[in-house]
Amino acid sequence: MSYSLRKRTKEDVAEFITWTYEGIYSFYDNNIQEEKITAYLQSVDKDLFYSVIDDHGRLIGNCEFFDVGDAPEVVMAVGVQMKPTLTGKGGGLEFIQSIIDVGREIIGFNHLELAVVEFNERAIRVYEQAGFKRKGGFQNKIRGEEYRFIIMERDW
């Protein structure tokens, strides 16, 4: 299966905001995060905000690229989300690799970073398989609880 990126559509966003996950992964539920819903709605048809589709045109996830860091050292980062019904089934590496490959073609980065919540060992394994290394971490308060995030990076 191959994946491609397209600019987000209103229909894509309408589906994204209904996504909920099982168990500890409910941390990523889109329907309980007002700021996430607002950001999705504002990202329709904008540069660097994409829907991930399979070779049959089915929506399987989303990603966004953004600059972090301060000038003159701008760092490209990526945020990714796979459709809940597809997680935990062994397709994560192909999913993230497609995002990286297509993203590099579109944007042209040589260094990429991402942040992942520390308890998401499943995603961390996939990112490591894709060549990401742990760089550091930070704490963030989300919905009243403290979470530790791991920053991961990859160079080409």
Structure classification: alpha+beta
* Number of structurally distinct domains: 1
CATH homologous superfamily classification: Gcn5-related N-acetyltransferase (GNAT)
How does CATH name the architecture?
A: 3-Layer(aba) Sandwich
Radius of gyration: 15 Å
Number of helices: 4
Order of helices and strands: EHHEEEHEHEE
Helix content: 25-40%
Distance between the termini: 24 Å
3D structure, described in words:
The chain is of the alpha+beta class. The protein has a single domain, classed as Gcn5-related N-acetyltransferase (GNAT) (Aminopeptidase, 3-Layer(aba) Sandwich). The chain has helices spanning 10-16, 34-42, 92-107, 121-129; strands spanning 3-7, 49-54, 59-68, 75-82, 111-117, 133-142, 145-155. Strands 1-2-3-4-5-7-6 form a seven-stranded mixed β-sheet, covered by helices on one side. The protein is globular, with a radius of gyration of 15 Å.
Brief rundown of the structure:
This protein has helices at 10-16, 34-42, 92-107, 121-129, and strands at residues 3-7, 49-54, 59-68, 75-82, 111-117, 133-142, 145-155. It is α+β, with helices and mostly antiparallel strands and 156 residues long.
